[in-house]
Amino acid sequence: MPHLRTMWLGLISFSTIVSIGLCLNCYECQSKDDTVCLDPFTDERKDIVGDAECDPKATHCVKYKTVMHLLDSGFITGRAREIVVVSRFCLIKPGASDGCIAVEGDGSFYIQCLCSTDNCNSGRSILPSILTVLVTCLTALWVMWR
Asked: What is the DSSP string of 5-70?
């Protein structure tokens, strides 16, 4: 029985090391150049954009969403124009935590979401990566205490 426990711990450790050792893959696009990058980022759009292998130094995938309300010469209809730009790409930001921040400015705001698992910058929740960590930890505890 101790050999089975050792085998499970070795397998879990090996899986973690292998997933850490591979390059990160992120979606890379910008809605300024390609409207396919806009939200909602559906499975069909993901297939069109495809994922890109990041530089080995990349630590995160990022999604920036900027929304601007313009009251300029285009203000003919009596309503402000809304401009939305979404960018998704790889980022080198060692020590940064996964999560989102929102910054509001004069008539605009942007949201920056960082995540550190493959293709996590689709705009969906970071719950799957948290769930993976939780299941791995629970499995390791179960194997150790069995």
From this structure: HHHHHHHHHHHHHHHHHSPPEEE-EETTT-GGGSSS--HHHHHHH-EEEPPTT--EEEEEEEEEEE
Q: Report, as an integer, the average pLDDT of 124-141.
A: 59
Spatial separation of the C-alpha atoms in residues 122 and 129, rounded to whole Å: 13
Nearest of 143, 146, 145 to residue 15 by alpha carbon = 143
What pTM was estimated for this model as a whole?
0.68
Residue with tokens 């493959």: 118
Do 58 and 26 form a contact (C-beta atoms < 8 A)?
A: yes
Q: Which distant-in-sequence residues (6+ apart) come within 8 Å of 116 by Cβ?
A: 24, 59, 60, 61, 98, 129
